[in-house]
């Protein structure tokens, strides 16, 4: 029953996290499209209250599901500790560890997506405020068009630099993940080599024992044959 509840909560969390990730991905594009559509000072640049409310609602729902799944995992841990069946404890511990890993992955993905969303929202609010100040200055002065154009170009340069920095960070994170994967493979190979190296001395000692037993058996057989031969000779000459 606990495993069934855990799987149901995991399926719900998976669907919620997919929708949550799509919301966070579309947030920046929606805000950019809104800025291109409305350029008047009377129209608010940051009209993303509906998306913000949706984000808060989904975040609360996901946190509640994570809390329920954590409680189910704790109940499974209690049942595993009180099972008292040695032949089943290994399978139960394996199942419990699998569900714990899934919970940890979902928790990590949720916090990562949430942090990315908050960073995007903060950046968009900052850029929107800067753009609004530039537009206000442009409409108020009406004479320094060249300076305003320079401000706008500088603003675009900053946005391009921000995109380049994000791409560089993504490349660095991917490289880090690849290095971590390669390190895991090297550790696995190293452990296998150590296992083989530990097995070879045992094989050598086993071969040496077999050879010693063969020599002992040969000596015993030779001694028995010699004694029998002497007895036969004594009996024949007697």
Strand runs, count: 0
- What's the tally of helices? 4
Determine the structural class based on helices, strands and strand pairing: mainly alpha
The main sheet comes to:
none
**CATH architecture label of the domain at 1-29 and 46-140:** Up-down Bundle
What is the rounded Rg?
Answer: 37 Å
CATH topology name of the domain at 1-29 and 46-140: Methane Monooxygenase Hydroxylase, Chain G, domain 1
Order of secondary-structure elements: HHHH
Indicate the proportion of strand residues.
Answer: under 5%
User: Could you give the distance between the termini?
Assistant: 91 Å
Mean pLDDT: 77
Instruction: Name the CATH class of the domain at 1-29 and 46-140.
Output: Mainly Alpha
The assembly state of the depicted protein chains is: single chain
- Which percent bin holds the helix content? over 70%
Q: Which segments are poorly predicted (pLDDT under 50) over 5 or more consecutive residues?
A: 33-47
Overall body shape = elongated
How do you describe this structure in short?
The protein is an all-alpha fold and 238 residues long. The protein contains 4 helices and no strands.
Question: SSE layout and pairings?
Answer:
Elements: H1 2-37, H2 49-81, H3 86-141, H4 145-237
Helix pairs in contact: 1-2, 1-3, 2-3, 3-4
GO molecular function: SNAP receptor activity
Organism: Lophotis ruficrista
GO cellular component, one term: Golgi membrane
